[in-house]
Amino acid sequence: MINQRIINALESCVGKIPPKHEIELIKDESWGDFASNLPFILAQEKKVSAKLLAEELAKKLVSYPDFAQVLVGGNGFLNFTISDKLLQEGLRIASDEDFGKSEVGRGEKILLEYVSANPTGPLNVVQARAAALGNALGNILRFAGFSVTTEYYVNDSGTQVELLYQSLLTRIKELKGEKAELPEGGYPGKYLLDIAKEILTGRFPETEWRQYLLTTILKNQQSSLAKFGIHFDNFVNESKFIDRIDEVLKKLAKVGKSYEKEGALWFRATDFGDTEDRVLLTKEGRPTYFITDLAYHIDKLARGFDRLINIWGPDHHGYIARLKGGIAALGYPSEKLEIIIAQQVSLLKEKEKIAMSKRAGEFITLDEVMDEISSDALKFFLLLRKASQHLEFDIALAKKSTQENPVYYVQYAHARICNILKFALEKGTASSKGVNLSLLHEPEERRLAKLTIYFPDVIERAALLREPHRLVYFLLDIATAFHYFYERQRVVTDNKELTQARLYLCQCVQKVLANGLSLIGVSTPEKM
């Protein structure tokens, strides 16, 4: 809402706004409410001073009824102070049930794939970060008008699964009292002992051991995700696409993007910006993970999705170019595929970082973390940083029921408002859209109102930039503004009109907090 009003005003002065244009909330309110970088962009194009351009625009824009003031900040930012009229107009719709919802996505069909862990053991907190990120992003995209399908790709074939099975056979031999050693790169985790013991009950013929192993681990992963509050529309097995490899290979050969060398079949990945060409089939004729994954992504596109978004782990960055290249080689626009890399997560335990390696046998699982802290706290903490940034958090802080804990701090703002509204109702005081909002002129009220009506813009940017952390930062900002307001202004007063106006403002803030928390998968308690 706010962004569009500013853009409309700017476009009335300069015409179509360039894509690089950004509007940001100003932290220091002495400079205004929102800042535009438009003068810098236009100055580069016209080879003139950004400050002079900003001064010319400010003179034109100050007469617009949406703005109380337009100033030039820094070396050429346009700083807008929005008018009371615009604040009140925004608040009139902010109590609506779906406030913040938009149609910016215009129904674009998105397939969002995330987690997609190998079925080789319990999920860890790095995969939990991908789960929290994908869940929040999917919710935000839907709220912004996109049509989203979520998918989990089960890597049920290939080298790692074979290593897992050989590791299981080692455990079975050990339980039988036979001497056995794990294969190089095998999995030493205790969970394989539990599965080996079950197999040795004799319930399964040996021909079913491998499938029982994969099914058991996948069910355990799904159980952990359900406990974490994460659900997928589809689970798709890698083995489903083995039969489609020949078709993809024929198409690559037809367009001249594959060749043989040293007995192996290669993809001309360097034609698409990769650092080297990539193997499709080994010299033994075995398909690589890449060709199977390419077949899977062609299947995604064939299903009619407008855009594919994948959330991958921190060790997959070098894989992006080859997959985009493969898609382009087969005739699809590579920009249809977006990759988000979720970086590493470090947990602290007694001031020491906890190792998280399945193969070392010493890693902390998602279930173990959820035994320590709530799923609400875990999701919130995992979304506190941009996906591309390394994340570190203290479990002890996440367990605290104090305002030091950021998720508690935001939830407490929601609970406080519920308590205020309940108290007012008991006193026989209610509120409605017809209240006199011009009575809300205290600095604390104005700040809270401004943040409230900015919520739809936060949702749109989080959706379009694929950055759920923006919503988390915003929730912390509006919770801070509410607590500040609560500590300095009494809501239920002897002045009936003022009480009704403040109650209405509180209702709007409650709606924003409830919608925002639910989008990131966090509960909204009414009592704390």
TrEMBL record:
Motif window: 'HIGH' region: 117-127
Subcellular localization is given as: Cytoplasm
Q: Which GO terms describe its biological process?
A: arginyl-tRNA aminoacylation
Give the enzyme's EC designation: 6.1.1.19
List, alphabetically, the Gene3D superfamilies matched: Arginyl tRNA synthetase N-terminal domain, HUPs, Isoleucyl-tRNA Synthetase, Domain 1
InterPro entries, alphabetized: Arg-tRNA-ligase, Arg-tRNA-synth_N, Arg-tRNA-synth_N_sf, ArgRS_core, DALR_anticod-bd, Rossmann-like_a/b/a_fold, tRNAsynth_Ia_anticodon-bd
Where does the source fall among the domains of life?
Bacteria
Reactions it catalyzes: tRNA(Arg) + L-arginine + ATP = L-arginyl-tRNA(Arg) + AMP + diphosphate
Keyword Nucleotide-binding belongs to the record: yes
* Keywords assigned by UniProt, alphabetized: Aminoacyl-tRNA synthetase, ATP-binding, Cytoplasm, Ligase, Nucleotide-binding, Protein biosynthesis
This protein's GO cellular component annotations are: cytoplasm
Assembly and interaction partners: Monomer.
Q: What is the protein name for this chain?
A: Arginine--tRNA ligase
Species name = candidate division WOR-3 bacterium
